[in-house]
Amino acid sequence: MTDSAYIPPVPSSDAAASNHEQDNGVESPAVPFIVPDDSPLRVNLPLRQIWALWFLNNDKKAEWTERLSVVHKFTHLEEFIAFYDNIRPPSTCAGCDYNLFKDPIQPMWEVPENVDGGRLVLFIDKNRPDALDIFWSELLFALVGNVFGDDTPSICGAVCNIRPKGSKICIWTQNATDDEANQRIGYVMKRIFTEAPFEHPPPPIEIRYEDHKSVQAKSSSKVNARFTI
User: Fold this and answer.
1) What domains lie within the chain, and their CATH numbers?
2) Does the predicted TM-score (pTM) go above 0.85?
């Protein structure tokens, strides 16, 4: 037998009669509907590019490169959805990092794709774990769904730094001096966060752009932003 999905059948008049019989205490056998392997219902949704999910654990005794590993690479949307539904949300991973990057770009400053780039960064208060989880989820689905359109080639990936004193969600871009593309990406990023579903009022949303070289050379907790959205 081929691998087949099971979908409950649409009720017919006979099915309605069977339901009536069940209501009277008479059980009727279930009628399975098998989706053929070549059915349009089995359509695959390939992504525009391969994305890799990386994870940095919180083992501070290990070297940074030893803490970082690829969890999975995604080629299809349904594959990404199934995987994302089964991983821990960021708010439960204090001291760790999640990274979603185009394959084969590594989430490191010094690799060629990132060395001249920067990041659009949103700071999230430690008292809003709900915002951390919602914003990160919305951003990931926007990236794999190509929501950034023609500016997607300028994007390297996204980073979620989860820290007890406050967390950050970032988009890394290739060219820190391309203010036009980076601002367009930033405005889309802010719109995604502004439209995110919340049970409680969302936190303030201010997105800064910082180039990687300034971040590496910083002597205080913050660096000067090229612009703020």
Assistant:
1) 6-41 (no CATH), 46-228 (3.30.760.10)
2) no
